[in-house]
Amino acid sequence: MNPSSTIKLLLVDDQGIIREGLRNLLDAQPDLEVLGEAGNGQEAVERAIALQPDVVLMDLRMPLMDGVAATAALSQKLPHTKVLVLTTFDEDSDIARAMHQGAKGYLLKDTPSEEIAVAIRAIHKGYTHMGPGLLEKMIANGQAIGQAEAIRSTATSPAETQPPEFEQLTPREREVLQLIAQGFSNREIAETLCIAERTVKNHVNRILGQLGVRDRTQAAILANRFPNPAPS
Question: For residue 124, which phi and psi values (nearest 5 degrees)?
């Protein structure tokens, strides 16, 4: 692995056992490197300024300074550092506040490590990654219209060099694939693209067949390896 392609991480959580578990899981990924850890938001900001990580995995509920305040501080001081919220609590109000302050993604802490790694790679490349159910809640609350439009804009960015399998996908299937890579459920994809959920299922089945992959996780990994599989 070329060191320049390694994504450098800072782990922020007030529970040492969680930080240790995340470090063990993420350090096992060849393209991820944990630079350091922090136990509260204030320490997170200080450590991030010192270490200059690419991505900060941020807990929300911590002493001294919570994750929302720390995210806001990092957005101002280190605008090129991306924040991925990892929380035990699926509370959309706190998560929405963190996203409003500049966080680029959200996952629950019990998310499988492979999916966390996919999310890290996605937000490092400039995408937004939201855990299952949150976008749907935010849209229902009128909070996510701008977020959804930003995601649609990202999903239609110009393509880079990709394997020939991508050329077999229609423009709509490429949009669906990009949202799969960001962790969206079929229902969330349907909401974002304003199409029927049944139509999304059909697109997903064809995408898996055309790319020759077994499931959504493999499709997401492939999409993140060759980003922006959408037409200009």
Answer: -65, -30
Q: What is the pTM of this model?
A: 0.61
Q: How far is CA 23 from CA 33, 111, 206, 217, in A?
A: 9, 14, 36, 21
N-to-C CA span, the chain: 30
Tell me how long the chain is.
232
Written as tens digits, the pLDDT of the chain (232 aa) is 455 589 999 999 999 999 999 999 898 889 999 999 999 999 999 999 999 999 999 999 898 899 999 999 999 999 999 999 988 765 556 777 888 888 988 888 888 877 888 889 988 988 877 766 555 555 555 544 444 444 444 443 444 455 677 778 898 998 898 888 877 888 888 888 889 999 999 999 999 888 877 778 778 777 766 655 444 3
Q: What is the DSSP letter of 57?
A: E
Give CA–CA dist 50/165, Å, rounded. 42
DSSP strand pairing (7-12 vs 55-58) = parallel
Alpha-carbon separation of residue 197 from 41, 134, 138 (angstroms): 39, 17, 18
